[in-house]
Design a protein that fits this description.
By secondary structure, the chain is α+β, with helices and mostly antiparallel strands. It has a single domain, classed as Nucleotidyltransferase, domain 5, CATH 3.30.420.280. It is built from 3 helices and 4 strands, in the order H-E-E-E-H-E-H. Strand 2 and strand 3 form a beta hairpin. The relative contact order is 0.19. The C terminus is likely disordered.
């Protein structure tokens, strides 16, 4: 989408033929990369890394859901899970994290299974 933050970068990798469909590789760990949102969309990219390649194999985008609901959805995918990565601006007491946690501790989103 013209005007998007990374438009030029994405356009360049598409022009160079660096975007293609790749299947999930069960031998590689799948890492969940979060961009937190409550009123705006929360996104979770599931990525695998092989040498210098970063493979985006799955994606969730939604809003007004707690981390527990996302955790359940991720567990249903039954990937070979690696780690979960959150924005550096999220701290244990942040308003964003409190909304996303609901009544539960978001720490369950740690290593192993999301």
């Amino acid at each position: 989408m013209a005007g998007a933050i990374y438009y030029d970068e994405i356009a360049a990798i598409e022009a160079n033929g660096q975007v293609c469909n790749l299947p999930y590789d069960p031998l590689l760990k799948v890492h969940a990369v979060f961009d937190l949102g409550w009123n705006d969309n929360m996104t979770i990219s599931m990525v695998q890394r092989l040498r210098s390649e970063i493979r985006i194999i799955d994606y969730i985008e939604d809003s007004h859901r707690t981390l527990d609901s996302y955790s359940s959805e991720l567990k249903d995918r039954r990937y070979n899970w690696g780690g979960c990565y959150f924005p550096t601006t999220v701290s244990a007491g942040s308003q964003e994290r409190q909304k996303l946690r609901g009544d539960h501790d978001g720490a369950r989103m740690g290593r192993g299974a999301p």
